[in-house]
Amino acid sequence: MKKLTMKQIEEGTGGRLIRGSGLAEVGEICTDSRKAKSEDLFFALVGDNHDAHSYIGQVIEAGSRNLVISDEAALSQAKGAEEVSAVLVEDTTAALQHLAAYYLGLLDMKKIAVTGSTGKTSTRDMIWYVCCEKYKAQKNVGNLNNHIGVPLTILSFEEDTQVGILEMGMDKFGEIDLLAELARPDIGVITNIGLSHIENLGSQEGIFQAKMELTNYFDEKNTLIVHQDDEFLNKERIQGPYRLVTTGFDGKSDYIISRIDDFGAEGIQFTLEHRGQTQRFSLPVPGRHNAFNGALAVAAGAQLGITMEEAARGLSKVRLTDKRLTVRGKNGIKVIDDTYNASPDSMKGAIDVLMHTRGLRSVAVLGDMFELGQTSGEQHRLVGTYAAEQGVELLVAVGKDARFIAEGAKEAGLKQVRYFSDKKGFLSEMESIIEKGDVILVKGSRGMKMEEIVKIIME
Q: Which HAMAP family does the annotation name (predicted)?
């Protein structure tokens, strides 16, 4: 982070300096009192179940002398309060967002925003690898992609950053709009329109409209990039003053994808054609669907002058964020860890990876998918049907709604199906279910914490 004075913090947050010197400098932003240190600017965030003003004394004791607060009384009661510089605001979360927007105005950089129902983190990572071939680029750490994570990401950008890649998540209307207004991206990427969060957004049309909030502040200088084989993301449906760039298989896209070769856990290769130029890409991450994400990354890089040859070098180095199709092996068993989250589309994509990974037996351990609303039973059942049709040899369904996965698999003719209402039940019988030589896919929604199964398998 570029160092800022408390006077700049006052200006950027729209608050009022009530203690200390405006000349005091801060070098990093901190929202976790347990990690506060000297030169940090501590934001006392207030959430539904916590109020960080309770930890102001702890923060001061740790050496942090610069604060943004909304409760002046809490500061006055804290030991060491006379030693700090503090800016008072009405809402510390909103102040964090305002400061991020202010900070971006101090930097000379291009901004790429990535959203979508699935694949946004993988696409963000791929764009970063592509951009690093030519520029100093930074991106979200982990999954800091919400109304707090995106501002924190922005405020972590170093002064000489040339390209910032921002993943933007949402589960209701207005959230992408807030982040888009804050970041004002030059380039937007929407990976797809699936069923994630349909419980909150009502329909796929609602999901489409929520994702398109990314373009609310676009004009003729901006570019939106989409994979147009998606039912919703195509030139017929998307209209705006901005430039639209598409990827796809139909031969009419700006970037035409062809010849996808799937090598299972070893990764994939695919070909892209753009304006008569053809380039072969090797991507060392599994899943045919990652050809779509890779094509989006190439198209994004091209808007910044990165050639397809340079993009190919970048994609050949890709390592995805943890728990996204990570392949691990131990004691003759291979585990495909895709436990970060799950939706119907990503479940099917992970099953495809399983079926292209070598082993003596293919095993899918699949948990509940959340936030599918009234479509939940049907969508779980369709995943089970898909697993059977693709040739999964043993399916283990874990969770309340996962019973529909088991039912769908059985109805489609899969003989080896086991169902457990919770992880505890499966883990109690796991040793008798898993065999040496198995390739095991483990996947479910974040709240299922399916990584606990991976951990025990790998012990």
A: MurF
